[in-house]
């Protein structure tokens, strides 16, 4: 198994991507700690993992509550002797589709402050319990908006670029401590019913303006057709890639972004 004996902390572990990654990490032998604000969502993921024979624990923690996040990370490290893998999969609802003329400062700053604040708080909490001979891997999530030159995604684009810059600089800081940092850049996923209201709210306005449903927009609309593969990545592809990147098989990878955009971006 790729992650046998590893300890993994996933903030946002009750969401679509976080939950998918947690399930694969557990299947690959990791002791998984999933963290989030909504216990019911965490419980769904935990039941799936337990039913498959995996080891999982849940914690209801607000990732913007820095003392609470640090306390949880310290408790995990005390129980397991350290933390091997961390992923921040927290989602922040934000506007997409509004151009500068109609965009408020509050809406512009919402994803920038929310995503980057959560990433800073969670990464600082777990990184202090990583490294040395044990090593460690910090995984981050961004979006193609970090590089796309399209209108209506100002706040989203800046926050995505910020997350990627954070990962690159952090990789340089943590490398002397034997900690790798790798970003994952998926596009919107097509098989994510668990994403629920977040996906609908994020893309609903754009889909409505185009006269189509969110699912139609994702499956066969411009988002899929704008990729080289003419499709969007799946949750399974994102989760399996995360497991590989967290494993020793990717031991030479750090300070880079894994492009899972199905060719929406070509680096």
UniProtKB/TrEMBL annotation:
Keyword ATP-binding found: no
SUPFAM superfamilies per UniProt: NAD(P)-binding Rossmann-fold domains
Pfam families named among the record's database cross-references: adh_short_C2 (PF13561)
Keywords, alphabetical: Oxidoreductase
Family: Belongs to the short-chain dehydrogenases/reductases (SDR) family.
Protein name according to UniProt: SDR family oxidoreductase
